Amino acid sequence: MCLKIQSPWAMPEETGRIGKMLLGENDPYRLIGDRLFEKWEEEEFADLYSSEGKPGYSPVILAFVSVFQFMERLADRQAAQALRMRLDWKYALHMPLDDAGFDFSVLCEFRDRLIDGQAEKRVFEKLVEEIRAMGLIKERGKQRSDSIAMLVKVRRLSRIEMVVETLRLAVVALVTANREWCEEVISPSWEDKYGERFVRQRYSESEWKEYEANIGDDGAWLLKRLSDGGAPAELRDLPEVQVFSTVWAQQFREEKGQMVYKDLEKYDGHTQIQTPHDPEARYSRKRKFEWLGDKVQVTETEDESYPHIITDMVATDSNQTDYEELPLIQDRLIERQCKPGEHYVDAGYMSGPNLAHSRDLQIDLIGPLPEVVTPQDLLPNGITQALFHMDPERKVATCPQGFQAKNPSLIVNTWKFQFPKKICAACPLHARCCTGKGGRSVGMNIHYDLVQTARTRQKTEAFKQDYHQHRSGVEGSLSALVRGHGLRVSRYIGQKKRNLQAVFTGCAANLKRTSHWLAGDRPQVRYEKCWTLNPE
Known about the structure:
By secondary structure, the protein is α+β, with helices and mostly antiparallel strands. The protein has four domains: 13-119, no CATH class; 159-261, no CATH class; 283-368 and 453-518, Nucleotidyltransferase, domain 5 (2-Layer Sandwich); 375-449, no CATH class. Helix content is 44%, strand content 13%. Strands 1, 4, 5, 6, 7 and 8 form a six-stranded mixed β-sheet that branches. A hairpin with a 2-residue loop joins β4 and β5. It is flat. Mean pLDDT is 90; it is low at 527-536.
C-alpha cells in the first residue's frame, strides 16, 4: 500500500456552511476544524508507506480518528460509523458530507503501521508541537509527573493454569501450522488432556494434582521433539512455541530425570511471563494494590493562565520504578522543547542521581525524598544515622563517639561505611547504636550534598505550601484520564500496542483541554481554606 501525498485540503463548501450553522463556536470539533486540522500534512507519515501499490487512506484522517476514538471511548467499528454519519467529525476533518469513510479494519492496520515504523509517538509529538506554537505551553514553566497502573484484560492465572494454558496454546499453534507432523508425533490422548482451556475450578483436587505431576514432563517431551532436528524449522519459530519454551525455562528444572517446579520467591518479575495470552504483561504490586499489566507515566504543565497540557505520556513495564523513568521523561521533554523550569514529583521519583541529573539540565526537581528508616530509628533513644558526621569529600564517616570509618564500598549509588566490630563492642553506646552482631554500618548517597539540601528544603513551610499547590492536582488529571478516556484497562494485547493506547489517550486529553481553553473555559480553581478553629 502506498501514499499519494495531497496538499492540505480546504473545507468543502457545503460542510463548512452547515457546520457553522449547526455547530456552536465553542464545539471542540469545530475548533479542531478551524484551527488545528489544516496544519497537518500527509508528508509527515510518508516513510510509513511503500512507494508503490494501491493508494491508502489519508494517514492524517486516520490519526485524528484514532484520537477521536479515545476522546469518546469508541471501538473501531463505532469510530468508522461516526466518521460516516456525524457532521462534527466531517467538519473537523474537512470531509464532504457524502464521504462514506473507510472500513473499520483500516484503523487496526494504521496502528500496526505506526508500531512497525517505530512511530508511536509521532501523532502525540506533532500535536504538542502545534499546541506549543499557539503559545499554550509556558517556556521553562511548571510541570508535574505521576504514574498510574494500566490493567490488561486477562484473568490472573494460578501457576498450574498458566503452564497448562501455555502448553495448550503451543499445541494448538503447532496443529494449525502443520497437522501432519503433529499427528505423527503427538499422542491422540493429548486432545482430551489439553484440548480445552484449563480452569482450575472445573477440576477436582485429585485431577489438577495429576496435571501438576505430569505437565512438566509432558512439556519437556514436546520441546525435545521440536529441537531434535526432525521437526520443521518453522514450527520452532512460532510465537506460541517461543513463549512455551521460555515458560518452561522459567518454571521448571530437571531433577533426577524429572521436571520439578523452580522456587520463584526471589524472581525479579521483569522477565517472568505471567500469562501466555499476553506474554508481555507483568505482575506488580504497590502496597495493597496488585495488578497485571503496565504502568503509564504522565507529565503535564501546571502554570497559571495556561491550560494543563500533557507533555509526555508513555506506557512502561509495570516493574519499572518511577525514579528509573524520571531521567527518560526529562530527556523526552527537552527533545519536544517542553523543558520545565520546575518539575514536581512524588517521593517515588526522588533520588540522589535524579537530583544531580535535574541539576545538570537546569531543572529544579521538587518533591519529598523518601525517609530512610533503620533499626536504630525504632529504638526509644537509638543512635540514628543523622547523628553521624559525613564528609563526602574525604569519604569519611564519624560516629558520635569520634571513631571514623574510611574506605567505603559503593553499593547502588550509596557509599557504605563499616565500623570495626571490636571498636563498636567496647563502645558505651553499643546498645543504642548496634542492633546486629557486627559493627555499625551507615550509608552516604553519592550525591550527599544535594540530598541534604533537598531534605532541609522539604521541611520548610514554604516548600510544603508550594508543593501542595502545584502537585496535588495531578491526581485529578489521572482520574480524568481513567474516567473520561478509559486509561485504566488496556484495549490491546502487547506492550507496544498498550503504549500506543496511552499515546492516543494523551492526544485525546490534549485536544479536549486545548479546545475548551480556546473556547474560554478555564480549569477549576482550587479554593484555600478560609476558616480557622477559633474564628473569634
